[in-house]
Amino acid sequence: MVIAVDFDGTCVSHEFPAIGEDIGAVAVLKELVDSGNKLILFTMRSNGKSPEENYLDEAVNWFKENDIPLFGIQKNPTQGRWTSSPKCYAKLYIDDAALGCPLIFDIETSERPFVDWDKVRDLLVLEEIIRE
Question: Is the pTM above the cut of 0.85?
């Protein structure tokens, strides 16, 4: 399955332009890949004109540093064969802004809510997207 994953508030706590704190995404993302799923980084981060504004590259590096392979960055690399739509095609989207995504409200970690990866993992196991 192809899964699009947001970054700030989803993989890390909200601290843009900095990279936020670990919120438990790494282990679950690795399980997704180990279960045969393909991840696309689908984020509002982009690179600016100066090296200090390489926000997208910093997010991509977070995946590399955590040994989480990406199938695509901002787009599905296969969709150009069958559509010209700019929307990233995936079967599943994990995003703190998505309706129904389980969130944690912990002011000590972030001023904004962020993804509850324990609950997301439970849902992924229930749907057999992650195999135990």
Answer: yes
